[in-house]
């Protein structure tokens, strides 16, 4: 009903927020890894990825997502989405820099 109150985010908005932040964090980590790392073998790029994953959880909390309700699946989703977009974006940047 219209008079019911909703506490927190709807599941759709929560999923959209988590996915968007993970995707943008992965892209930002890929660009940062390209700027910071010396090349494809530099382990500093992995540190950038890990930092991008870890920093998302306080940001999600500030955005109103209840991270106390996160299960292992949610944490793995955030890590996988961030890794995937980091891998693709950094790979493209490494390839275009070699041309």
From TrEMBL:
<protein>
    <submittedName>
        <fullName>Uncharacterized protein</fullName>
    </submittedName>
</protein>
<dbReference type="InterPro" id="IPR043941">
    <property type="entry name" value="EMC6-arch"/>
</dbReference>
<feature type="transmembrane region" description="Helical">
    <location>
        <begin position="75"/>
        <end position="98"/>
    </location>
</feature>
<keyword id="KW-0812">Transmembrane</keyword>
<feature type="transmembrane region" description="Helical">
    <location>
        <begin position="43"/>
        <end position="63"/>
    </location>
</feature>
<dbReference type="Pfam" id="PF19094">
    <property type="entry name" value="EMC6_arch"/>
</dbReference>
<keyword id="KW-1133">Transmembrane helix</keyword>
<keyword id="KW-0472">Membrane</keyword>
């Amino acid at each position: 009903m219209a008079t019911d109150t909703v506490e927190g985010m709807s599941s759709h908005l929560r999923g959209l927020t988590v996915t968007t932040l993970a995707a943008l964090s992965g892209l930002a980590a890929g660009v940062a890894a390209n700027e910071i790392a010396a090349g494809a073998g530099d382990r500093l790029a992995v540190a950038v990825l890990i930092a991008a994953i870890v920093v998302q959880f306080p940001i999600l909390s500030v955005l109103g997502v209840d991270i106390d309700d996160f299960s292992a699946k949610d944490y793995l989703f955030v890590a996988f989405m961030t890794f995937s977009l980091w891998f693709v974006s950094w790979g493209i940047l490494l390839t275009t820099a070699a041309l």
